[in-house]
Design a protein that fits this description.
CATH superfamily of the largest domain in chain C: NADH-ubiquinone oxidoreductase 51kDa subunit
CATH architecture of the largest domain in chain C: 3-Layer(aba) Sandwich
Distance between the termini of chain B: 56 Å
Helix content of chain C: 25-40%
Number of strands of chain B: 7
Order of helices and strands of chain B: EEHEEEHHHEEHH
CATH class of the largest domain in chain C: Alpha Beta
Structural class of chain C: alpha/beta
Radius of gyration of chain B: 20 Å
CATH topology of the largest domain in chain C: Rossmann fold
Strand content of chain B: 15-25%
Shape of chain C: globular
Chains: A alpha+beta (about 150), B alpha+beta (about 200), C alpha/beta (about 650)
Number of helices of chain C: 25
Number of domains of chain C: 5
Number of strands of chain C: 19
Helix content of chain B: 25-40%
CATH class of the largest domain in chain B: Alpha Beta
Radius of gyration of chain C: 28 Å
Largest interface: A-C, 47 and 56 residues
Strand order of the largest sheet of chain B: 2-1-5-3-4
Number of domains of chain B: 2
Strand content of chain C: 5-15%
CATH topology of the largest domain in chain B: Ubiquitin-like (UB roll)
CATH architecture of the largest domain in chain B: Roll
Distance between the termini of chain C: 87 Å
Shape of chain B: globular
Strand order of the largest sheet of chain C: 12-11-15-13-14
Largest sheet of chain C: 5 strands, mixed
Oligomer: heterotrimer
Chain lengths: ~150, ~200, ~650
C-alpha cells in the first residue's frame, strides 16, 4: 500500500476530518478495499480516532475490509425487482457461486452484493456485473450470464 | 439563563436551560429507570428505558427523558399502562441477550418481564455504549469502539491501543451491565494483541 | 465563458442562445437516463450523431442525449421536435431509417410508434400517448428538453429566471412568504411545510447557516430524485440558491448516493458550468450574494436519508440519527441552523417563484398543493416516472397512466411510502392521492415510490420483505428498532415458511407498538407500517399462512409445490431440459413428473411451459397428487392417454 497515494487523497480534501467518508470512498475506489495500513494512515493524517474510522468502514456498505473479487455482482432487491422475482435470481446466484451477499469466493472470482434499487425497474429483475446491467432475468438466464465470466 | 417549570407525575419540577427531562426528574428525586445513562457521559438515548409520556393538545406521546430537553410547561408521567407495557417488552428484548445481568433482573422483577419471552441470543452485549463512550469522552483513549450496524453492531477493541492502555486502566469494566465487556477484552487480548515484536499473534 | 454579472446580462445571454435556435428546426432528443442507458441508449445517441453527419444534416438538425423522459418501460426513446414524434424501444439499427424517413422525408416510422392497447391505434405525438397525456409534468418535463451537461439548454427554457427574480426583486422574507403561500410540502417523505421550515432556520440564532440537498433516495423502487438530479441538476441548484438566500446561508451541501454515478457526474458538470457563468459561487449575478456548494457522496446506508443521520454523515461520522429536539433548523450541521430538503422539493422552488404561489396552489388539493413525481413500478404495464397533480386518483395513475396490470392479472394493492408506508387495496383505488389521504389509508406519500402488486404477490411476504430491508439498514443504536425489528423479522419469516403459530400476530402487534412509540428515529417509528397495513387489509392471508400453512398468492417458496398436470402435459420436453436441478422425469411422449424431493421451487418449469398447454400448476396448502402410474404415462396423439383410458 502506497502511503503517498493515501496522503494525496487526504490532501485533496484539505485534511478535513469531516471529509473522512469521502476520503475512504476514494481509497476504496482505488484499491477495491480498505487496507488496514491505509486506515491507520488516515487516522494519523486526519487526526481522528481509529474507532471512528473502523465504525464508518463497517457501517457503510460501500466499504470492504477484505479484498473484493475480480467480478462484482450486484443484484437489485428493490421492491419492484422483488415483486418481479429477484429472490429467485439471488438464490440462483448464491447456488452457483457458493457465496452470499457481502461475501467473496475463495478464488477471489466473484463478490456478491445486494443493492436496493438501481432505478432500472422496467428491466426488473436486474443484475449488474462489473458495471454491465443484465435485465429481465430468470434463474436459468442468470446461470448463463455468470457462466460467461472467467 | 432561563428557568423552566415542568410537571412530572403531578409534581412541579424546576429546571434550568440545558437540562434534560431526566436531569430535572433526578433533581426532584423522581426515579426513572435507565441503562445507557451515565452522569459523566453525554446522553445517548439508546436503551429507551427512560421513556416518559408527555401530554399534548393532540394526545400523548412518548419521549426519551435522558435526551429530551426540559421545556416550559411539559406535563409528564413516568409510569402508565402504556409506558409499563413498553418497558416490559424492552426488558424482555434485553433479557434475551443478558438474562444474568443483575441490573436487568432487578428491573425485570419490577415490571414483570419474562426472560424467556424471546429466544436467547448468543451475544450478551446490550449496546448501552457505556464502555465506548467512557473511553472516548472521559479517558479520551478510544481503545474500544462500535463497528457495523443494526443487529450486526458490536463493540470492538482496537488491539494496538488496548494493549497499550487497558491494563493500567480498566475503568470501563465496572460500567458494563453484563460483563460482556470483560469477556470481549480477554478474547481480544488472547487473539489479537500484538506480541513483543509488534506482530499480531496469539499470546 | 463570460461571467454573467447582472439580470440584464442574463436576459441578454438567454436571448442570444434562443436566437440561435430555430423553434421550427428539427431537434432529436434521445433519453440518456440510467435506465435507458442500461438498454443501450448510448449506442443510440452515438448512432444518431453519426447518421445525421452521414446524411449531411448536421447544419439543419440538432441532436442531444437528454435527461430521463420517464417512460422507462419503453426505452430507449427518441422524440423529434417540433412535431413531438415519439419513437419507443429504439435500437441503433433503427436510427438510419429514422433519420432518413422522419428527418429528411418527413415521414413517420410506424413500427416504432406507441400502440394504444385498447383501440389498437398508433399514436404519433408524445403528448397524445396516454402515459404522458394524463400527467402534468411541471418539474420533470424539462428533463427531456435539455442535455444536462449543457447549461445553455437550461437557459434556453427559462432557467435562472427565478433566481434573478428572487435575488433582485424580492427580499429573503418575501421569498419565504411566497413559498409559504404556495403551501409547498416537503417531497422527501414527511411532507412538512417547506416555508415554515425555512422560516425556522432563518429565525434561529447562530452563524453560519447551511442548506442541504437530500439526494440519499433510499426507498427501494423509487428513483425520481436520481432521474431529476441526472436530467436537470440545474433546477435543483437554482432552487437551492433561492432557499439559501431566503434563509441566510452561504454554504450548502448536496448529499448524493454513490450508487448514482451518472447523477454525481452530471451534478459535478452542472456545478462547474454554473460557477463559470457566475450563477454559483461568489457574488451571484452581481447581486452581492455568495453561495458555494460541496458534493458529499453517500456510502451505502439507507438510514442516512434520515436528516439527522445525513448530518452525521456530512460531519464524517457513522450515520446514526440524533434525537430531535433539537431540530436541524435550530441545531443542525456542527450545531448550526441547517435546512435540509429533498431534491424534488428544491427543484419545485424555481417553479413557484416563476409562476407565483397562487398559480402553484391552484393545483392539487386543500392540504397538498402542486404536483408530485411518482415512480410507478412493479406489476404494471407502463413502468416509469410520472408527474401528476395532487388529488388524482390511484385508479387514474394505475390504469390510465400505468396501463393496468400486465398479463391479464388482477390488481391487488399499491404500496406507497417505501419501507415506512403501507399497501392500499383495490377497494380504495378511488382514493385521491395526497399526503393526508394516503396517511388516512394507513400508508403515506413517502418519497413517491408506487409499487403495484397483483394476485401473485403474497402480502405477508411483502411485510417480511420490508422488515428484512429495515433490519439490514437499521443503524442499531436504539433497542426498539434493533431488537424489536429483529424479532418481527424472525416471526414474519417463520410465518412465510409455514412455521407460524398462535400468538404470533399479537406479538407482532406488541412489537409494533414498541417500535412506533419508543424508537429514536423515523426509521424505527414507521417500520411497523408495512406489517400493520397488510394485516389491516389482507388479514385472511396471514390466517391462511399461520393456520393452514397455505400461501393464497402461491408465492412463498416453502409453502408451494409445483405439479405437472398429467391431463395437460404433452411431454414436449421443454421444462425437463430447462430444469436447473434435473428434477423432472420424463421423455418424448412420456408425461413429465416433477420429483418433489429434488425440486427447489425455482419456478422455471412454470415459466417455460407454453401457455397453450398451461400444464404446470402451483399448489399450496394441500398435498401434491401422487404420480400417475407408469403405464398411464404415454402421450397419445389428440390428447388421449395410454391404455385403460
Amino acid at each position: 500500500m502506497d502511503t503517498e497515494k493515501i496522503d494525496q487523497i487526504v490532501d485533496e480534501h484539505q485534511g478535513e476530518a469531516s471529509s473522512l467518508i469521502q476520503v475512504l470512498l476514494e481509497i476504496q475506489s482505488e484499491y477495491h478495499w480498505l487496507p488496514g495500513d491505509a486506515l491507520h494512515r488516515v487516522s494519523e493524517r486526519l487526526q481522528v480516532p481509529l474507532t471512528r474510522i473502523r465504525h464508518i468502514a463497517t457501517f457503510y456498505k460501500a466499504f470492504s475490509l477484505v479484498p473484493k473479487g475480480r467480478h462484482e455482482v450486484h443484484i437489485c432487491v428493490g421492491t419492484a425487482c422483488h415483486v418481479r422475482g429477484a429472490t429467485r435470481v439471488l438464490d440462483k446466484v448464491q447456488d452457483l457461486t457458493g457465496i452470499g451477499p457481502g461475501e467473496t469466493d475463495l478464488e477471489l472470482k466473484f463478490s456478491l452484493e445486494t443493492v436496493n434499487c438501481l432505478g432500472c425497474c422496467a428491466l426488473g429483475p436486474v443484475m449488474v456485473v462489473d458495471g454491465k446491467t443484465h435485465g429481465k432475468l430468470s434463474p436459468a438466464g442468470t446461470a448463463n450470464v455468470l457462466k460467461s465470466y472467467e | 439563563m432561563s428557568e423552566y417549570l415542568l410537571q412530572i407525575d403531578g409534581k412541579e419540577v424546576k429546571a434550568r436551560e440545558g437540562m434534560t427531562v431526566l436531569d430535572a426528574a433526578r433533581g426532584a428525586g423522581i426515579a426513572i429507570p435507565t441503562l445507557c445513562y451515565h452522569e459523566e457521559l453525554a446522553p445517548f438515548g439508546g436503551c429507551r428505558l427512560c421513556i416518559v409520556e408527555a401530554e399534548g393538545p393532540t394526545g400523548s406521546r412518548l419521549l426519551a427523558s435522558c435526551v429530551h430537553p426540559a421545556e416550559q410547561n411539559l406535563v409528564l408521567r413516568t409510569r402508565s399502562d402504556k409506558i409499563d407495557r413498553i418497558r416490559r417488552t424492552l426488558l424482555e428484548l434485553l433479557l434475551a441477550h443478558a438474562p444474568h445481568s443483575t441490573q436487568l433482573q432487578e428491573l425485570a422483577q419490577e415490571y414483570g418481564a419474562d426472560p424467556d419471552r424471546f429466544e436467547q441470543d448468543a451475544s450478551f452485549c446490550v449496546h448501552c455504549g457505556l464502555c465506548v463512550r467512557y473511553c472516548a469522552e472521559v479517558k479520551k483513549k478510544n481503545a474500544v469502539g462500535f463497528i457495523d450496524r443494526g443487529t450486526k453492531k458490536e463493540i470492538s477493541f482496537v488491539p494496538q491501543i488496548a494493549s497499550r492502555e487497558c491494563d493500567r486502566c480498566k475503568e470501563c469494566f465496572p460500567l458494563c451491565p453484563t460483563s460482556y465487556l470483560q469477556a470481549a477484552f480477554v478474547l481480544t487480548a488472547s487473539l489479537a494483541f500484538p506480541d513483543s515484536e509488534g506482530t499480531g499473534s496469539a499470546r | 465563458m463570460a461571467r454573467i454579472d447582472s439580470p440584464e446580462e442574463l436576459a441578454k445571454l438567454r436571448q442570444e442562445v434562443v436566437s440561435h435556435r430555430d423553434p421550427d428546426a428539427p431537434r432529436v432528443s434521445v433519453c440518456a437516463g440510467t435506465g435507458c442507458l442500461a438498454s443501450g441508449a448510448s449506442q443510440v445517441v452515438a448512432a444518431v450523431k453519426t447518421e445525421i453527419e452521414r446524411q449531411g444534416l448536421q447544419a439543419a438538425v440538432e441532436s442531444r442525449g437528454t435527461g430521463c423522459h420517464g417512460f422507462c418501460e419503453r426505452g430507449p426513446i427518441i422524440v423529434i421536435d417540433p412535431e413531438e414524434i415519439c419513437y419507443l424501444q429504439v435500437t441503433p439499427d433503427d436510427v438510419p431509417e429514422i433519420i432518413s424517413r422522419t428527418l429528411k422525408d418527413k415521414q413517420v416510422v410506424e413500427r416504432l410508434l406507441y400502440v394504444d392497447p385498447a383501440a389498437g391505434e398508433k399514436v404519433t405525438r408524445e403528448s397524445d400517448i396516454p402515459f404522458y397525456k394524463h400527467q402534468q409534468r411541471l418539474v420533470f418535463g424539462p428533463n427531456r428538453k435539455i442535455d444536462p451537461k449543457n447549461i445553455e439548454d437550461y437557459l434556453a427554457i427559462g432557467g435562472y429566471r427565478a433566481l434573478a427574480r428572487a435575488l433582485f426583486e424580492m427580499s429573503p422574507e418575501q421569498v419565504i412568504e411566497e413559498v409559504k403561500r404556495a403551501n409547498l410540502r416537503g417531497r422527501g417523505g414527511a411532507g412538512f411545510p417547506t416555508g415554515i421550515k425555512w422560516e425556522a432556520a432563518r429565525n434561529a440564532p447562530g452563524e453560519p447557516k447551511y442548506v442541504v440537498v437530500n439526494c440519499d433516495e433510499g426507498d427501494p423502487g423509487a428513483y425520481m430524485d436520481r432521474s431529476l438530479m441526472e436530467g436537470n441538476p440545474y433546477s435543483v441548484l437554482e432552487g437551492l440558491i433561492i432557499g439559501a438566500y431566503a434563509i441566510g446561508a452561504n454554504e450548502g451541501f448536496v448529499y448524493i448516493r454513490q450508487e448514482y454515478p451518472l447523477a454525481v457526474e452530471n451534478l459535478g458538470v452542472a456545478i462547474e458550468r454554473a460557477e463559470e457563468h457566475g450563477l454559483l459561487g461568489p457574488d451571484i449575478l452581481g447581486s452581492g450574494f455568495d453561495f458555494e456548494v460541496k458534493v458529499h457522496r453517500g456510502a451505502g446506508a439507507f438510514v442516512c436519508g434520515e436528516e439527522t443521520a445525513l448530518l452525521m454523515s456530512l460531519e464524517g461520522v457513522a450515520g446514526e440519527p440524533r434525537p430531535r429536539p433539537p431540530y436541524p433548523a435550530v441545531k443542525g450541521l456542527w450545531g448550526r441552523p441547517t435546512n435540509i430538503n429533498n431534491v424534488e422539493t428544491w427543484a419545485t422552488v424555481p417553479l413557484i417563484i416563476n409562476r407565483g404561489a397562487a398559480a402553484f396552489a391552484s393545483i392539487g388539493t386543500e392540504g397538498s398543493k402542486g404536483t408530485k413525481i411518482f415512480s410507478l413500478v412493479g406489476k404494471i404495464t407502463n413502468t416509469g416516472l410520472v408527474e401528476v397533480p395532487m388529488g388524482i386518483t390511484l385508479r387514474d395513475i394505475v390504469f390510465n397512466i400505468g396501463g393496468g396490470i400486465p398479463g391479464g392479472k388482477k390488481f391487488k394493492a399499491v404500496q406507497t411510502g417505501g419501507p415506512s408506508g403501507g399497501c392500499i387495496p383495490e377497494d380504495q383505488l378511488d382514493l385521491k392521492v395526497d399526503f393526508d389521504e394516503l396517511t388516512r389509508a394507513g400508508s403515506m406519500m413517502g418519497s413517491g415510490g408506487m409499487i403495484v402488486m397483483d394476485q401473485d404477490t403474497c402480502m405477508v411476504d411483502v411485510a417480511r420483505y420490508f422488515i428484512n430491508f429495515l433490519t439490514d439498514e437499521s443503524c442499531g443504536k436504539c433497542l426498539p428498532c434493533r431488537e424489536g425489528l429483529r424479532q418481527m423479522h424472525s416471526i414474519l419469516t417463520k410465518i412465510t415458511e409455514g412455521k407460524g403459530k398462535e400468538g404470533d400476530i399479537e406479538l407482532l402487534e406488541q412489537l409494533s407498538e414498541v417500535a412506533r412509540e419508543a424508537s429514536l428515529c423515523a426509521l424505527g417509528k414507521t417500520a411497523p407500517n408495512p406489517f400493520l397495513s397488510t394485516f389491516r387489509y389482507f388479514k385472511g392471508e396471514y390466517e391462511a399462512h399461520i393456520k393452514d400453512r397455505r400461501c393464497p398468492a402461491l408465492s412463498c417458496k416453502a409453502l408451494i409445490s409445483y405439479y405437472i398436470d398429467p391431463e395437460k402435459c404433452t411431454a414436449c420436453l421443454l421444462c425437463l431440459k430447462r430444469c436447473p436441478d434435473n428434477a423432472i422425469d420424463g421423455g418424448k411422449k412420456k408425461i413429465h413428473i416433477i420429483d418433489q424431493d429434488r425440486c427447489t421451487n425455482c419456478g422455471t418449469c412454470f415459466d417455460v411451459c407454453p401457455s397453450h398447454f398451461d400444464a404446470v400448476r402451483k399448489i399450496s396448502g394441500e398435498p401434491v397428487p401422487p404420480p400417475i402410474p407408469e403405464d398411464r404415462r404415454t402421450v397419445v396423439k389428440k390428447g388421449k392417454r395410454g391404455a385403460g383410458q
